[in-house]
Design a protein that fits this description.
The chain is mainly beta and 120 residues long. It is built from no helices and 6 strands. Strands 1-2-3-6-5-4 form a 6-stranded antiparallel barrel.
Length: 120
Amino acid sequence: MPGPYPYGETIRILRTGASPGRDERGQPLPGPDASFDVEGCVVTPRVETPQVGGDQQQARDTVIVGWTVYVPAGTQLHTTDKVRIRGVVCEITGEPGDWGRSPFTGTRGPVQFAADRVTG
């Protein structure tokens, strides 16, 4: 099913399902792959303006720090999920925000989250 933005892009939510138990050393076993695609998303660069005279400000005004992503209303995201955007694996930074229902139209707005490239 296409998302609300007909020219949006498809991203992949990378999720591991619940652990089926523990190994012989008592460590949790990895759960099954529960990843899924989300179509019709809006992906925009997320910028940060460095403080004047700060370490990051060296002949540039803004620094791209990741993406802001808008997914269709009702998309369930966990802070433990990762996301693949344009072939790059990112972490969901902070709590995803649900825009809720418009008091003017009654329609639901998107779910918004910040995504940062996985490092290390």
